[in-house]
Amino acid sequence: MSQSIVSEVTFFLHSFLMGIVITFVYDGFIILRRLIRHSDLLISLEDMIFWIACAIGVFYMLYEENNGILRWFAVLGASLGMILYKKTVSPLLVRAASSLIRKITRILARILGFLLRPFRFAVRKTVHFSAFSLRKGKKVGKRAKIKLTAKLKLLKITLCGH
To answer: For 63, which of 68, 79, 98, 110 could close a Cys bridge (C-beta 3.0–4.6 Å)?
Structure first.
């Protein structure tokens, strides 16, 4: 084969791989959206930033391999890579990664909950004790006020009597 045909086939394969990589990275966003609920505004911002980054990546590939000239077979290669990946690997990867990350998160939450159990116990007891102390303090304060008021009245009566 001539060198030009080899370089064109290589360029087509790089375009194909670029399509796979773009779709793979976007699957990361899909997995994140499955794990954490996103608003429509945040999804739109993520998509806009993602596609701007993809455009820069594609432009860089075109610039490096084809002197910046857009070739339709490169678009075809990227499209085929995206479609092939999306129809074969993507559904399995997204489902498996989402469930795996959820399971890992649950396990870590249980471990963290177990490790923090003494701390939660201490906080609960401290809150309970401080509430108990506050109630007792209010009762003691009321009694002290009543006694001081009575003593003040007695003192006024005694001073007024002299």
So the answer is: 68
Which candidate, 70, 75, 88, places its Cα nearest to that of 15? 75
For residue 31, give the nearest of 89, 78, 85, 101 by alpha carbon: 101
Number of structural domains, the chain? 2
User: d(Cα 36, Cα 13) in Å, to the nearest integer?
Assistant: 35
**What pLDDT does 68 receive?**
65
Task: Say whether both 10 and 48 belong to one domain.
Answer: yes
Cα separation values, 59 from 10, 16, 39, Å: 17, 14, 30
Residue 96's pLDDT is 95
158 to 148, 152, 154: CA distances (angstroms): 15, 10, 6
